[in-house]
């Protein structure tokens, strides 16, 4: 009887772990969806600066995308308007 309870407990622990990992993945995907263009622009600007080039245009684009992502994050989306602008 102890063996059955131990297996059940191990399965429960794995299930909780999988749920936590899934929630972290969903959060990461959401952040990347909102700020993906900004992150790519900033990394691109950093790479340009490290190579000795002027990255003012790339950094400016990243700032514009950050403003767009911020505005998009403040929009209340409901099921009826979910597919608009997506």
Outline of the structure:
The protein has helices spanning 2-50, 56-73. With 86 residues, it is mainly α.
Cα-atom Rg, whole angstroms?
Answer: 21 Å
Task: Give a count of the beta strands, DSSP E runs of length 2 or more.
Answer: 0
Overall shape: flat
Give the overall average pLDDT: 77
Portion in helices: over 70%
Which secondary structure elements does this structure contain, and how are they paired or packed?
Blueprint: H1 2-50, H2 56-73
Helix pairs in contact: 1-2
Keywords:
2 helices, mainly alpha
Please give a structural write-up.
By secondary structure, the chain is mainly alpha-helical. The chain has one domain. 78% of the residues lie in helices and 0% in strands. It is built from 2 helices and no strands. The chain has helices at residues 2-50, 56-73. The longest helix is centred in the first third of the chain and has 49 residues, at 2-50. It is flat. The N and C termini lie far apart (53 Å). The relative contact order is 0.08. The mean pLDDT is 77.
């Amino acid at each position: 009887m102890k063996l059955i309870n131990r297996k059940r407990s191990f399965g429960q622990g794995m299930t909780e772990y999988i749920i936590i990992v899934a929630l972290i993945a969903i959060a990461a995907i959401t952040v990347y969806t909102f700020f993906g263009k900004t992150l790519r622009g900033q990394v691109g600007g950093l790479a340009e600066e490290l190579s000795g080039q002027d990255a003012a245009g790339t950094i400016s684009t990243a700032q514009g995308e950050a403003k767009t992502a911020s505005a998009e994050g403040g929009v209340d989306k409901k099921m009826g308007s979910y597919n608009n602008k997506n």
